Amino acid sequence: MIVLGLILLIIGLLVDLGLLVTLGSIVLVIGVVFFILGAVGRPVAGRRFYW
User: Which residues touch 45 (CB under 8 Å, ≥6 apart)?
Assistant: First the structure.
């Protein structure tokens, strides 16, 4: 999810498309939050680890 967010963000910046930049940012932030929650041992969506 982090990689997808980065790809969308980069494509959005290169093409100058605000929608892709916004979606990329949102997906990136959600991916980082899931990664942090999974790293501290808290179950995310029923899984103990998120990757």
Answer: none
CA–CA–CA angle 40, 45, 47 (5° rounding): 60
What is the pLDDT averaged over residues 21-38?
91
* Structure tokens given for 29: 């932030």
What's the predicted TM-score (pTM) here? 0.77
| Residues ≥6 apart with Cβ < 8 Å to 41 | 48
4-16 pLDDT, tens per residue? 999 999 999 999 9
Q: What per-residue confidence (pLDDT) applies to 37?
A: 81
Bridge partners for 47 per DSSP: 44
